[in-house]
Amino acid sequence: MDTKLGKQSVSLSLPHEKPSLPSPQRSLLLLGLGIAIILSLVTSQIADLQMLWLLWLGLGLGYTLFHARFGFTSAFRRFASVGNGEGIRAHMIMLAAATTLFAPILALNLSFFGEDVSGYVSQVGVGMLFGAFLFGIGMQLGGG
Is residue 11 part of a domain? Predict the structure, then answer.
């Protein structure tokens, strides 16, 4: 039922009508799942089961954080545009929790897989610069 008011058109919906939702992008979802399966097959061929579990853990956490809009860029963008600092506070709490939990793990050499735990420090090289560049592109494409 449409009503014309001057130049504006107002649409009145009946209470029994459900709003239409956009259809999911099935092709992109299938492409992502296909890539994840290919990565799993390649990982299982060249590495052990631990790496396969870590791959799926990373994919799951990435998917969850992407849909939760828990990215650094979106938090700072929200703070700069509307003054909402909740995202930045959440990141600071996450950083404090990670630091608090990792300090005893590094100090006591605790491990899930029986390997030595230590901080990994290396020099800045071409590989790190290229990886940082790819990470930045991914962050912008992901909106996070």
Answer: no
- The residue segments making up the domain with residue 103 are 69-114
Q: What is the pLDDT of residue 104?
A: 86
Tokens of 105: 């793990």
Q: Per-residue pLDDT tens for 9-35?
A: 555 555 566 666 566 677 888 888 899
pTM (2 d.p.):
0.50
Give the count of domains, the chain: 2
Q: How far apart are CA 98 and CA 92, in angstroms?
A: 10
